[in-house]
Structures are given as structure tokens and as C-alpha cells.
Design goal:
Layout (H helix, E strand, L loop, with lengths): L2 E3 L4 E3 H32 L6 H5 L5 H25 L2 H27 L1 H17 L5 H14 L69 H11 L1 H37 L1
Antiparallel strand pairs: 1-2
Helix pairs in contact: 1-3, 1-8, 3-4, 4-8
Family: Belongs to the tetraspanin (TM4SF) family.
Membrane topology: Multi-pass membrane protein
InterPro entries: Tetraspanin/Peripherin, Tetraspanin_animals, Tetraspanin_CS, Tetraspanin_EC2_sf
Length: 270
């Protein structure tokens, strides 16, 4: 193992370059997230008119991608430069941010377990808000379609939730061709069809409710997700533990390197 030699202490090259390697992965991932997010916004014309983001009543998935990218890019940059330059300020910023994120994740997990009814109500409000904006943003539309297809569900608590959307509303004031229908992602797939029928949900809610389950999913997505979690609890727990261990490992490397640098400076000025 190589060291930088000073008068009374030494900084381990092992910890230094291991922390650099640890952070370069996050920095590159942050660059990718930012690049994908900015490309998606440019395709939708948001970069030329940023007010489109504020006019969307639901959530734009690209915003989440960009937020994750900014956090990963910033922390990766601070960790890389802090390790290479042996900069205590940047290393403390990196370490403190990782500790904060770790405890925030832990707090969210505990609160979600203790206040399940509150979380369920917030998720319902969130899902219904995005149902209203289903046709306003292509990325949001794809996200909802993917969620409904993957979980074989429709709406927050059922197909009737699509009355919240102006295009699928069953009221007499609506002249949309999709009136009293549901998105194609609510439809029960037909194995014989090679091409997705995007009109399979048209007029389906005009029929008697007893016949809905013949052509569309009638279970709400909140119920579907509540059923999915117990079946996959070990996978969820494994992912949470893996992320936590990575964060703890990063904190350990940063704190060790900070201690080495402080010891070197203390010995140098003694």
C-alpha cells in the first residue's frame, strides 16, 4: 500500500482512490440522468418555453430525472474533487449530504409504515391529479400506462376514476371520442393480437359494470400496489439494504480520509 509521507502522519492512497472510484460512478450516472432529462425536455419544447412545466397540473417525470441527476452530479463531483485534492470542505459536504439522505430515507420508510392510511390518501390524491393531466404530457402518459399495464390495474381505485379526465369523462358535456372510455393500458390483453389496440378502451364504461372485467382491469392501482408489496417484500428489503450499505460505505471512506488529512495537517503544523 502506498502513502504520501509527511512529518508525522500519512494519507492512504488506498482510501483516497477508492473514494474517487466510488464517486466517479455517481458523477457519470448524474451526467447521464441530466443528459436524458435535458434531451427529453428539448424534444417536448420545454427548454424553449419553461412555463410548460408550471402549466402541467400533474407531475412531469422528467423533473424527477433531472432532480436525481443534479443530486448525483453534485455529490459525485464533490466526492471526486474532495478526494483527489484532499479538500476537507468538499469531503465534509459529501459526507454530510450522504448522512442526511440516509436518515431521510430511513425516516420516510418508518413514517410510511406507521402512517399507512395517510400515505394511501396522499398517493390517491397524487394519482388522481395525474389522471387529470394524462393527455397533457407524453412522459406522464407513458408512466401511467406502464404502471397500469405492469400491475394490471385501472385508475386509483377503479375505472370510474377516469371520469376525472376531461377526455374520458362520461358527462353529457363531453364530445370527446374517448368519452366513457379508459386508456388502452386498462384493457385486458388479447394474446391473439400482435399489434396493441389503442382504441380497445373506447365506450367500455357505457356497458354494464358486470361486463367490465371481460375487457378491462377493474382493480385499482392502489389495491394492486398494496398487494404487490407483501409479495415482493424481500426484494424491496434487499434493495433498501444494498442502497444503505453503499451509503454507509461512502460515509466510512469519506470520514477515514478526512481523519487522515486532519492528522497530516495537525502533524505538519506541530
Amino acid at each position: 500500500m502506498h502513502y504520501y509521507r509527511y512529518s508525522n502522519a500519512e494519507v492512504s492512497c488506498w482510501y483516497k482512490y477508492l473514494l474517487f472510484s466510488y464517486n466517479i460512478v455517481f458523477w457519470l450516472a448524474g451526467v447521464v440522468f441530466l443528459g436524458v432529462g435535458l434531451w427529453a425536455w428539448s424534444e417536448k419544447g420545454v427548454l424553449s418555453d419553461l412555463t410548460k412545466v408550471t402549466r402541467l397540473h400533474g407531475i412531469d417525470p422528467v423533473v424527477l430525472v433531472l432532480m436525481v441527476g443534479v443530486v448525483m452530479f453534485t455529490l459525485g463531483f464533490a466526492g471526486c474533487v474532495g478526494a483527489l485534492r484532499e479538500n476537507i470542505c468538499l469531503l465534509k459536504f459529501f459526507c454530510g449530504a450522504i448522512v442526511l439522505i440516509f436518515f431521510l430515507e430511513l425516516a420516510v420508510a418508518v413514517l410510511a409504515f406507521l402512517f399507512q392510511d395517510w400515505v394511501r390518501d396522499r398517493f390517491r390524491e397524487f394519482f388522481e391529479s395525474n389522471i387529470r393531466s394524462y393527455r397533457d404530457d407524453i412522459d406522464l402518459q407513458n408512466l401511467i400506462d406502464s404502471l397500469q399495464k405492469a400491475n394490471q390495474c385501472c385508475g386509483a381505485y377503479g375505472p370510474e376514476d377516469w371520469d376525472l379526465n376531461v377526455y374520458f369523462n362520461c358527462s353529457g358535456a363531453s364530445y370527446s371520442r374517448e368519452k366513457c372510455g379508459v386508456p388502452f393500458s386498462c384493457c385486458v390483453p388479447d394474446p391473439a393480437q400482435k399489434v396493441v389496440n389503442t382504441q380497445c378502451g373506447y365506450d367500455v364504461r357505457i356497458q354494464l359494470k358486470s361486463k367490465w372485467d371481460e375487457s378491462i382491469f377493474t382493480k385499482g392501482c392502489i389495491q394492486a400496489l398494496e398487494g404487490w408489496l407483501p409479495r415482493n417484500i424481500y426484494i424491496v428489503a434487499g434493495v433498501f439494504i444494498a442502497i444503505s450499505l453503499l451509503q454507509i460505505f461512502g460515509i466510512f471512506l469519506a470520514r477515514t480520509l478526512i481523519s487522515d488529512i486532519e492528522a497530516v495537517k495537525a502533524g505538519h503544523h506541530f
